[in-house]
Design brief:
Length: 206
């Protein structure tokens, strides 16, 4: 037997569908959720930060690629034209090879992360975690590359000083102070990113 809808049932259904009370309740729930003392509630700020860091990472990758190409082109030009001298050509050649290896690993780290990231609010924390992991890997790669570059830079300034018969200590002191400052700045960023990474993981687990 077919059951007919009474006017009362139809009114109730219309109230459920059309009443603004549901919108108001949803708005209240949303505002209550956003007001919680929990860092991940500011999803827009988190997405904005992730996008900004992604742009900086892409810019840094582009600069590293250009620097690598510049060193390799300088090496081949100096070698073919007999320019720059032995020390400079050797420095450019070794730096070009090391920088090529560095950029290859950097591309692998960055592209793997960028392929898995998205701008969806539902994936904001996951994208931020992936970006932080990428940053940590890049920093570790930078710190690993520091030692061979430090040795190469000291050798280069020593050789240039011998070739040009000038005092080596001012140049060696300058380059070593500069590299130590760079390393300390890198270490500072490393600690900062590790702290952010732990915070993001704790946010996800809640």
């Amino acid at each position: 037997m077919k059951k007919e809808n009474s006017p009362l049932n139809e009114d109730q259904n219309n109230d459920l569908v059309d009443s603004p009370m549901l919108d108001e309740q949803w708005l209240e729930l949303t505002e209550d959720w956003q007001s919680q003392p929990y860092e991940k509630t500011d999803i827009k700020a988190l997405l904005k930060q992730t996008r900004r860091r992604t742009y900086w990472a892409k810019a840094l990758l582009a600069l590293n690629v250009l620097a690598t190409l510049g060193m390799l082109l300088g090496f081949f030009y100096g070698l073919s034209q007999g320019r720059f001298g032995t020390s400079m050509n050797t420095f450019l050649g070794i730096c070009g090879v090391l920088s090529t290896a560095f950029v290859i690993y950097e591309i692998k780290i960055r592209f793997t992360t960028w392929q898995n990231c998205c701008d969806s609010p539902d994936k904001a924390i996951d994208s931020a975690i992936a970006g932080c992991e990428s940053s940590l890997k890049y920093i570790v790669l930078t710190k690993l590359a520091f030692l061979p570059f430090w040795l190469l830079a000291n050798w280069f300034f020593y050789s240039i000083s011998i070739e040009e018969s000038r005092a080596m200590w001012p140049s060696l002191i300058f380059i070593n102070v500069y590299l130590v400052i760079c390393y300390l700045v890198t270490e500072r960023f490393h600690r900062k990113r590790k702290k952010e990474y732990k915070q993001l993981l704790s946010m996800k687990s809640k």
